[in-house]
Structure formats: C-alpha cells, structure tokens
Amino acid sequence: MHGPALSGWLMVALCAATGVYCLLRMRVCAGEERRAAGGEAVMGFGMASMALPAAVLTPPTWGWAVYAAVFGGATLHGLFTVRRGGHHLHHLVGSLAMVYMAVAMASPATGAHTGHTPGTTSGIPVVTGGLLLYYVVYVLHAGARLAPVATVRTVRAGGPGQGQGPGPGPAWATRPELALACRLSMALAMLAMLVTL
User: Fold this and answer.
1) pTM for this one?
2) For residue 99, what is the enclosing H or E element?
3) Distance (Å, rounded) from C-alpha 62 to C-alpha 88?
4) What number of other Cβ atoms are within 10 A of residue 166's Cβ?
5) What is the pLDDT of residues 178-189, one digit of tens each?
C-alpha cells in the first residue's frame, strides 16, 4: 500500500477528506443514513492511515493486527446489518477487503511493509482478483449514476433551506450525489490499494 510518496499523499488526502465529509453527514442525517455515514467515515480514515507513505510512517507489525481487529469488528457488524440491503453489502465487502489487506501486509512474505519486488504478491491472487473485479464494477456503476442526464428539476415543497436533516448543518452535506461521489472516491482508493497488494 505504501507506494511512491506523492501518490501516497494524494490517497491520504482523498481518503481523509472523504472521512471528514462522512462525519459532516453524520451530523445532519438520522437513522440508517447516519449509521452508513459513520461506517464510511471509519473506512475513509482507516484507508487514509493505511495509505501513509512508508517514509513518513512504517507501522509496527502489531499495527496490522489493530487494522484487522477494527475492520473485523466492522465486518461482524456488517454481517448483522446486511439483511437490510442497500449499502450494507458494500460496507461488508469493504470491511472484508480492509481485513484482507491488513492480514496480507502483516504476513512474513511482505516483510511487514518493506516493499514489493516485481513479480511477487502479498495476497492470494484469486481473492485479490475478485476484490478488484468487484470494485471495478462498483466504480463503473457509481460513475454512471453520477453522469449528468437531462432532467427536469423539481423544487421541493418547503422552499430553500429545507431538507437539512435533523441536526444543524449545511444543506450540501445531505446531497445524495455527494454521498455517491464519496463512495466512488473510496472505491477508487480501494482499487489503487488492491493493485499495489
């Protein structure tokens, strides 16, 4: 995961910004949407910390066990919520992918982050390939949903300033296209992390 410094910092910035946006969404949303935003915030900050360039921070061997435990807990939570459908299945796959990457990076074959030599892998190729395929399909689907289409704009009843959710906060935090863009950016970051595995 810890590749060249510039790409690593760009990944950190993208994932951290996504995590911050998800925290803002948590303030103004309620119910399932609030819980989904919380899970996405954890994922964003976890991915940001995993993407830190090795020159800045080389996590100790036990650090990968912490990642695996945190996202293992998120996976268990996802197993109980997946029956509700929607984004819960995507959160479950994301949590499993984070556990998989943490275990792969902690394995002795990778030297706990010393870098990869060409032709070597630190994961199970079939699992890595399956996750890559899932995220490619997800990115293409989410990107197609964000593509602009000619539609007639309808005005919500209640006028401007309404529909901000249960708490104080900016109306843009609840825009569904921003939430989808947030998920798309995390899926792209996950693709980049899996490719380097």
Assistant:
1) 0.76
2) helix 88-106
3) 29
4) 11
5) 888 889 999 999
